[in-house]
Amino acid sequence: MQLQQFIVAQWQLVLIFVLSGGMLLWPLVHRRVSGVADAGTLQVTQLINNEKAVTVDLRETKELTDGKLPGAVHIPLSQLKERVGELERFKERPLILYCARGQRSRAAGSVLGRAGFTKLFNLAGGHKAWKDAGLPLDKN
Description:
The protein is of the alpha/beta class and 140 residues long.
């Protein structure tokens, strides 16, 4: 009975508790259902070298001043739905998706998953992680 009284009296606090817990769990749930696996710089390097993975730079054109991963295909996330056909020839190969810090590339994974791509990886930390690791970049 005391619990019910507390919930009724403090319904706002209970609501905040439930919503904040859901917000904390959402990234974990979203990662599982998106079909995109996170990969660090070492795993990405192995995928490129051993499985001929294709890197897809999803940053906007103005963000390319620091260069891009070697051989990366540049398709800004804002244009991906219209340009997904450009990646069709790579459907059987792993695709490494990256943006500046690794957030937008997860959204791209959802678009590509719906288009039938199954070997999707998100470069954890994005371009920044690659650059910070001292790995090679193609300058524009």
